[in-house]
Design a protein that fits this description.
By secondary structure, this protein is an alpha+beta fold.
């Protein structure tokens, strides 16, 4: 049966709402989302042609049911045709792909016998409001992977030769085909990308689904207008008068779909001010109309509210309303949200790219985004991801070829999170010598489609039109020409690598790794690769092992220990098919793991230490270091590598090491010269702050100390003092750093575990950009001799509407150090964590007699109607649990 249309009006879900009478600026016309009640079948099974399949009442018996957006495999997993691909090695059982060698086949055609060599049909039936007979109707596809034949009511409206490109958007005038008063039938025949197509690939992040994510992966919708449609509204801002005032330029694309010339009025409203311009359009003509501040004084804002990135100020937003009138009737209208800000970049005297927002330097510290492996979408999941970014103190997300839905950018705009998008690496996007005319056309169409969306979003601050290397000159010039034509308001960079081009010169960035485990000293010791200098667009201290409770959700019980090929199937591809480098470092530094629980406690300590060291190093070296992107933020499926929190949204050691390093005001240790520094990421000076350092032996007895008072400039890194050389330290020892303001308020607290035996890097045998091996390893094995500690734990839970807040007081009553105290809130009767969850601190250490109060918050509904259980464990902590009421 045809479904009831869902209609979107000005961002809200309503049913059959009227656009109203013409006013100074009209309401935005409704959008009909065509997302529900689709049917799916392989063209090798469905023998009918497009004309028949797109006829109302077509017999789709035996077809799969799905909603869209969806990939083919995503739909087949949802309806349980295929098992959960995230569990164990289930993905190996999916037809059409041999995963025995873990080849991710991004650069290959579909293997013979694959059911995804066939195209697949998506079809649906829907009704439209009666007034569509009096309007021009438009059908929009915001993302098809990869090419499609499109049929509506028995007529072909789009051909696969033209409807091609994962990141291209498509719009069809369907006024003459659409029917009112009876069902409309839409059929889309989708084909997967081939090896030379500019699609989505996963490179070495995770396995590629056997359909290569073939499907309708973004929104499909209907809109209506009069004879003239209004598209791509854009507000560009230029800051003046010392960044206090702004001049706005508003533009929109108008298209006359009629056979007659049209005279009309483009109206705009912004900041409570209204303006208009007469426009003439010939029959079938399209043009871009611009309202400039030189013509309209209303577009000059004397006291503009600026958009600032997270940590720098408020991300203020404005809305511009546009409409086009013919006579007294509104033909079309659109609203656009925008921020007033200016992003610039420059090369420092050392050739490193430095970004500035509204005239202020900004140290880019972020992580790389990964969508779901089957491109499944969840708004709640996105909210969790973005709130985790802010909770860790990061300010940036990088998108390498994962140019997601507009909801992503709308939310980063509101949250002040900078976004660094660009094309992907290691596939057809960078095999320019193999490009033919179609690839050139699709690359250009893809860029135009995405820039028209991205240019309005203040969170998007740069565009990378290359990834692992820049395009050749003719492609680079094409890209730059499109950016210029579309008035791209931000910097662009030729690639994520340091390779210069003959067109734009030096990129000012680097992608020199590492991606495997390196010891904490690496980031300050290395001066030729991934160390803390310049702008590192992707790097990482390597694997991040999920907590045991998460491992048990995707590793079968009989494979949990020892590490085997099932574990490795959830590592990466190409050079990253195991976690051997990480495990070897763990065994050599902390002692050979004897069990899964032993491995876990050591892995969380090592990941905390590694992530903290990386972000601290780039902070200490600002602005010799100008940016760092952790590879990665999250994972597309349950993985052992490259994340700051796991697939199930559980934050572990790496998350809290990052959060510690990213404190707005932070005291930290320098591994390279045994000094202490204060990194001030705020834009206010610190006067008369006191830095203290205390060194402890393994038995938690103090062996030495240092203290000093200092002033710290805004947005700076300042050395406090060198640590004293202390005799008689145990092989493993501890360093406690604290920072207090003149009134005695604690501003920062940091705790390190160190060794008298240093990590020694083997620079001569460095493994390209992956990692640097070691000839010597720190000896932290005596941590295993820490006496067991039983903590005093008290908790209080408070429900505040949909939110639950928990306050936990932890006291160490023993005479020994309580090392890496881990708090967890789980669901009673289940091994699952409550997620997302936001702890003020975790994986912390307590000296003898010390007490710490930490807080957590989560959504009450995420308990799934179960009681909350607080669990406490740690490196040498006696486990305990308490049900909270």
């Amino acid at each position: 049966m045809p479904r009831r249309c869902v209609i979107l009006l000005s961002g809200s879900l309503v049913l059959l709402a009227s656009s109203g009478a013409a006013t100074a600026v009209a309401d935005v016309p409704r959008k009909l989302l065509l997302h529900e009640d689709w049917q799916l079948q392989s063209s090798c099974e469905a023998k009918a042609g497009g004309a028949e399949i797109s006829t109302a009442g077509f017999n789709a018996k035996g077809w799969h049911r799905t909603d869209i957006p969806s990939t083919v495999v995503g739909a087949l997993v949802t309806d349980k045709t295929y098992p959960d691909p995230t569990y164990g090695t289930n993905l190996k059982s999916f037809p059409g792909m041999d995963y025995s060698s873990k080849t991710f086949f991004a650069n290959q055609d579909m293997p013979k016998g694959s059911p995804f060599r066939c195209s697949w049909w998506f079809r649906t039936e829907f009704m439209v409001p009666a007034d569509y007979t009096r309007k021009t109707a438009w059908l929009h596809f915001l993302g098809i992977n990869y090419r499609a034949n499109v049929w509506l009511n028995g007529q072909k409206i789009g051909d696969a030769n033209d409807v091609a490109g994962t990141f291209a958007t498509f719009e069809f005038n369907v006024s003459k085909v659409l029917q009112t008063g009876k069902p409309n039938s839409l059929a889309v025949e989708v084909s997967a990308p081939g090896k030379n197509d500019l699609g989505i690939t996963w490179v070495d992040w995770n396995p590629t689904p056997p359909d290569k994510d073939m499907g309708i992966w973004k929104e499909v919708l209907l809109t209506s207008s009069g004879d003239v449609s209004l598209r791509n509204p854009f507000v560009n801002s230029k800051l003046e008068n010392g960044y206090k005032s702004a001049a706005l330029t508003i533009s929109a694309d108008l298209r006359n779909a009629s056979d007659l010339a049209v005279n009309g009025v483009l109206r705009a409203e912004v900041d409570g001010k209204q303006l208009s311009q007469q426009v003439s359009l010939g029959a079938g003509e399209s043009k871009t109309v611009t309202l400039a501040p030189e013509q309209y004084s209303e577009l000059k804002l004397a006291n503009a509210k600026l958009w600032w990135p997270y940590g720098m100020g408020e991300p203020s937003l404005y809305t511009a309303k546009l409409s086009f009138e013919i006579g007294n009737a509104v033909s079309d209208a659109a609203n656009v949200s925008f921020g007033i800000r200016e992003v610039t970049s420059e090369l420092t005297d050392k050739g490193y790219r430095l970004f500035k927002v509204n005239g202020r330097n900004v140290l880019i510290r972020g992580a790389a985004w990964a969508p779901d492996i089957l491109l499944r979408w969840s708004s709640r999941r996105l909210d969790a991801d973005l709130n985790y970014v802010r909770d860790m103190g990061l300010n940036t997300i990088r998108l390498e070829g994962r140019i997601d839905r507009e909801e992503f950018y709308e939310k980063t705009d509101r949250l002040g999170i900078l976004v660094m998008p660009g094309w992907t690496c290691c596939d057809a996007w960078e095999r320019w010598n193999s490009w033919g005319s179609e690839q050139h056309r699709i690359a250009g169409d893809s860029l135009r489609s995405q820039i028209r969306i991205l240019r309005n979003h203040p969170s998007v601050f740069v565009w990378l039109y290359g990834s692992d290397g820049p395009p050749p000159a003719h492609v680079e010039k094409m890209y730059l020409g499109i950016l210029k034509d579309l008035n791209w308001p931000n910097p662009s960079v030729s690639s994520a690598s340091a390779t210069a081009t003959t067109v734009t010169g030096k990129s000012g960035v680097k992608m020199t790794g590492p991606y495997e485990y390196v010891p904490p000293v690496y980031w300050l010791a290395d001066t030729k690769a991934g160390g803390a200098y310049g702008y590192n667009t992707e790097t990482s201290p390597g694997p991040a092992i999920p907590p045991r409770e998460s491992l048990e959700r995707f590793i079968p019980k009989d494979h949990l220990w020892p590490i085997d090929d099932v574990w490795n199937f959830h590592a990466g591809g190409e050079r990253f098919t195991t976690i051997n480098v990480f495990t070897d470092g763990l065994n050599r530094r902390y002692g050979t793991a004897s069990s899964l629980d032993d491995y876990e406690r050591k892995a969380q300590a090592m990941t905390y230490d590694g992530q903290r060291a990386m972000f601290e190093a780039y902070g200490r070296n600002k602005y010799t270091a100008t940016g760092v992107i952790q590879w990665m933020l999250n994972n597309s499926w349950p993985s052992l590598i490259w994340h700051l929190y796991d697939y199930y949204l559980v934050p572990a050691g790496g998350y809290f090491g990052t959060k510690k390093a990213m404190e707005p005001v932070h005291v930290q240790y320098s591994y390279d010269d045994n000094s202490v520094a204060v990194v001030n990421s705020s834009y206010e000076a610190l006067q008369g702050v006191t830095v203290s350092a205390k060194l402890y032996n393994l038995d938690a007895k103090e062996k030495g100390s240092q203290e000093g008072t200092m002033n710290v400039a805004p947005d700076s890194s300042t050395k406090a003092f060198d640590l004293p050389r202390v005799e008689g330290l145990t092989t493993s020892y501890f360093l406690r750093l604290q920072l207090h303001d003149p009134a005695g308020k604690q501003l920062s607290d940091n705790f390190y575990w160190l060794s008298t035996k240093p990590d020694v890097l083997d620079w001569k045998h460095k493994k390209d950009t992956v990692y640097t091996p070691q000839t010597g390893f720190a000896d932290l094995t005596s941590l295993n001799a820490l006496p067991p500690v039983h903590l005093d734990v008290k908790s209080k839970k408070e429900d505040q509407g949909s939110k639950t807040s928990v306050r936990v007081t932890v006291r160490n009553p023993s005479g020994s150090l309580a090392f890496m105290v881990h708090l967890r809130i789980g669901k009673a009767g289940s091994a699952e964590d409550v997620t997302p969850i936001f702890w003020s601190d975790n994986y912390f250490s307590l000296l003898p007699g010390e007490q710490r109060e930490v807080t957590a918050s989560y959504e009450a509904t995420d308990l799934d109607d179960k009681a909350a259980v607080l669990e406490v464990d740690g490196y040498n902590i006696a486990p305990q649990s308490t049900e909270m009421r």
